[in-house]
Amino acid sequence: MADSPSAIAPSSAETAWKVLALLAATYFLWHIYAKPRPKPALRSVAVLVLGDIGRSPRMMYHAESFALNKFQTYLIGYRGSKPIPSLLSLPRINILYLSEPPSYLRGLPFIIAGPLKVLSQVIDILRTLLERIPHPPEFILVQNPPSIPTLAVVWLVSRLRGSKVIIDWHNLGYSILALKLGEQHAFVRLAKRFEKYFGRSAYAHLFVTNAMREYLVQEWDLQGRKVVLHDRPPARFHRASPSESHELFQHLLPSFSSPSLTSFLPTSKPPYSTPFTYIPPSRFPPSGPTLDVDLALDMSDLSPFAEHVAMPELRGDRPALLVTSTSWTPDEDFGMLLDALKQYELAARAREGLEDEKERLPKILMAVTGKGPLRQRYMREVERLQMGSGQGDEGGWRYVRCASLWLEADDYPLLLGSADLGISLHSSSSGRDLPMKVVDMFGCGLPVCALGFACLDELVKDGVNGLVFHNAEQLAAQLESLLRGFPSAPALAALQASFQQAAHAPAGSPDHWEWGTWAENWNRTMRPLLLHDVASEAAL
Predict the structure, then answer these.
(1) Per-position DSSP letters for 212-232, written without gaps between them
(2) pTM above 0.85, yes or no
(3) What CATH number does domain 17-228 carry, 3.40.50.2000, 3.50.50.60, 3.40.50.720, 3.30.70.20?
């Protein structure tokens, strides 16, 4: 009787890993004896992320902070999205791009392609850390996950070159793999042992949450220094002024040009108005015209009076702007958001005849940012709901629209700073990490409705800076309560005001919740960790 595929897989995997280990060991031995290496250079760091550099904000912020603290900084990762502007201008930052794995691997079975891809990555990372960086760095900061092969590679390089390894624990790699294969799968168990073995003995460990620190210290007996570095946004994340919003929405007008959006959004006449902002008239000569707000939206004939035009303002007839950032993957349930929007549509229709405008629900534009494999599937469903080809839609949505956007690094903070409410669909595979998207939103003074999980309360204070939901019904109810009477929505205004209150409230008061910029948090946490040895040597 022939062996089943499941019986063959573990044996094949084991063989593949042995071959991988043999090849890697051969390369290591060759490199050890081929040429001697100098001692690590003080005030230097290699920041390694096995992913798209431009889509790894925390690691980009690390690199920026290292450079501003006078570290020669080498940021290592893959090409893709554009990095934040400072990384392209700071003199001490060098971006070293890794080569993509060979394209022919995509056509091979995973049991073959997986080990070969890892081998390709091992060789490329080693070449970068051992050859492309001229002097051994004092520190190697590595993002986890992914754990394979990065933790093993930096463990080896630290022994070859004397560098100190700092692991930034964003999440647990094996827990992400378990979402696809199940916790008892052989690969998941192997990945967990790998992660634990090579992650235990780093010089220092950074954690995104207290829950992550407590779990790993207790379960894995981590060695070295251990500090919690909560995510915080850089200073450029701030509440946008009406002028900044006006400029942004003019730039984004092509993204709002589909028939379903042009018929939904208020009429605009750029450069004087957008669907969300307009430039009202202010002072005119005594003989000039007198305009009301409606006429101010059509400014095409006012060029003789341009010097008397006021600064941009928010339109009173604008839709509420909601924003969510998603990777369009199964671990973020976009279907839950769609179900909540369906319920909101029905609630808005039920209230449209009310005489009291404060009890009505506004139109909402749901801006969805990000790229991922499920984007096309969900956006096709959105289009059916909007245009009225779904079941029970009564001619299509009248109060809700979704727009899928991809923004450059400069535009993303402005969109968050111009929005009225953020939505987070992040669900943690380990239950011990926090969504960076919410951190960015808070940096822009944007309250959130966030999907709840174990340690979310380290970031989202329910009823203070946001609301926590667990299903579509709860999210729909939160949208209704927060947006009722928009743009004069008291419940939403109370959440927005918490950001100003927190900035001025003394620690320990009811209005205080821990916050600050990335630079403040990084300098307070990381400088003592990094500069202790330098200060000690200088004192000798």
Answers:
(1) HHHHHHHHH---SEEEE----
(2) no
(3) 3.40.50.2000
